[in-house]
Design goal:
It is a single chain. By secondary structure, this protein is α+β, with helices and mostly antiparallel strands. 19% of the residues lie in helices and 31% in strands. The C terminus is likely disordered.
Length: 270
Amino acid sequence: MPTYSLTLEYDGTDFAGWQIQPSVRTAMGAFNDALRTVTSETPALTAAGRTDAGAHAHGQVVGCTLERGWAPAELRNALNATLPADLAVRNVAIRQDGFDARRDAVERTYRYLVVCRDGRSPVMRRNAWTVRGPLDIDAMRTAAAHLAGRHDFAAFGSSPRAGGSTVRHVASVSIERNAIESRDGAQHGQPVLETVAITVHADAFLRGMMRSFTGALVKVGQGRATPEWLGSLVDTATRRDPSVAVAPARGLHQWSVRYEPAHTDQELAA
């Protein structure tokens, strides 16, 4: 009975999150239906994380054990021929027995995409948060430095388990600005598209943690708070702080999950 990990990519706009829920469409539900159609099996699934309703995934990892053995390429192609257009299997790996996509993960990466514009951004409306810009990137980077390290992040989220710890280790936070200029100068010096990408690497994330990080950092970038304000929230709270706005789910992208190399017996890259 071989064990597999499957790396999924999905546009979360029309999903009510990852986890199966009654009477709503979820990414896990769509994947589970395709897996049953292809394999005639309904194995228990483990997942690296639970994405929010409307959030996207580029590297969601799912683990399962099947009664029948499949070549990784064959399983990936069969599932992609069955899955809906907003969900795909990027790669398949054969794993050691006992692999658990959540417990065996050693690092997770989330990225949040912000568009800086005074008006609407129709092209980016499904996968980014449009805010009035520009943002002070230097101030945001100064504030983000307070988040690095092992801290109690209760001000920014809650544990997925009742009574669970709100301490997490953030390996790094990076903030990058990208401005795409008009080639013909028609925008009169204004970029056609200005985006800010906030990327966080951590051992694990609390519920709402990445979206709260983003809300706080944008508040600093807009000059409505200081980097020291954000720093004062770290290690001091016992519950989510109401002064921290939660950024909308549409700009959140689950980016990747890292495992120790020993967990992989064979991997097929997309």
